[in-house]
User: What shape does this take?
Amino acid sequence: MADQQLVKKLEKASLDTKLRLLDLCHQTVIHIGGDLSVCDMMTAIWQYAIHYDVKNPRWEGRDRFVLSKGHAAAVTSFSQAAIGCYQVEDIYKEYATDFGRFGMHSCNLANPYVDVSTGSLGHGLPVAAGMAAALKRKKSASRVYCVVGDGECGEGSMWEAALFAHHYKLGNLVVFADRNGLSFDGPTEQYMALEPFADKWRSFGWNVLEIDGHDMGQIIDTIDALPGVDFDRPTIVVGRTVKGHGVSFMENNVSWHAGCVKEDDWKRAKAELTEAYERKWGAN
Ligand SMILES: Cc1ncc(C[n+]2csc(CCOP(=O)(O)OP(=O)(O)O)c2C)c(N)n1
Assistant: This one.
């Protein structure tokens, strides 16, 4: 079972990122619903799992990261800022001008901390699988972490990548699926049913781990138990999550897929998140 001090540290880190997301969302439109749903898993990926050198983002020995649900660029940027890739203040400043190194979607042209430009759904996982195949061929010890959306899994290219990753026994590929049940404008099950979601990946030959994607202890335990890169199957961690998690008026509300939060709601949202953390861990 995960060390409770580590759980507390990462939950605090995730809270900090959520509060920063809300500050940015008060300033401009971001994809806040899907940022909040994946924030706990993203925090653990960037602040616990990944082997990375912030001074050398092109270090050959790094783990790779591909944000297949590229619209969650903001949560990725703040998660990377937390390990020193950027100054948090620069994210606000650059979003306020021409987005600078950041953006509504992750872009690697101006940002060395982004391995792959994404935003057109269904493209990140295929690229991540190709990267994992290349690393395996080089006998690299690096993993490729990839974050996918569930609505995104309505794209056929995702399942071609799933076949490919299984065929080439890509044990170095670890996918986190943000199974929040909502896509752009409604429930996934209404627009393109995915259930039984985990079983579909199992039937494609993947190692499938199902967790509560907001339970930091479970996320840490799952990362600790990931198979080595020479495992004979790719892994998908299906995180059951809530879109807009932690903010009552955003939770499961498709109108908060993306948006800009007004003054009163901004204060209320931050207070709700902070109170939830303090109820569990106290104010210090
Ligand atoms: C190929 C493509 N089609 C449509 C879109 C528009 N779009 C952006 S986000 C989104 C919903 C994605 O849903 P999901 O993968 O569940 O991610 P979440 O919103 O939960 O973060 C859509 C349809 C897109 N970015 N790319």
